[in-house]
Amino acid sequence: MLVPAIGGGHPGDHGGREVVLGVDTRAPSDDVIDFAFRQAARQGAVLRAVHGWTPPPVYGYAGWVPSQVEADQFRTIEAELLREALAARREKYPDVVLIEDCRPGTGASALVESSADAALVVVGRRRRPHGAGMRIGPVAHAVLHHAEAPVAVVPHD
Question: CA-CA distance, 89 to 30, in Å (whole number)?
């Protein structure tokens, strides 16, 4: 857990009533999602599940220009993946108000933007059994450095 010093205030002065959860819809982690739901339930906070996605590149004579139909299809697919990743926890935590926030852009930028009004930001990091390589991934790294709220990094397989 990292609690940034914000504007000379006290560490507990992080205004929002939302717990922000970063969700990797391609490999959602039960440990990370459960942690965020537990924190939201414990704090009586709204849980904002954030998923940033980047459309696949479509190359044409003018560079990358997806049609509106394709953009809408990608948006629908990504929103459904987020909904599926959270479905089991909705039943387990019926009292937690959940906002599904699926937006184009990187996961890191979506989480950093959402941190401005958050009480806590929750991100995951994969365990590295061999001990080599980075200890955290690029999303967790960016959130730790740029979030305006406390950040909890939850290890998972």
Answer: 9
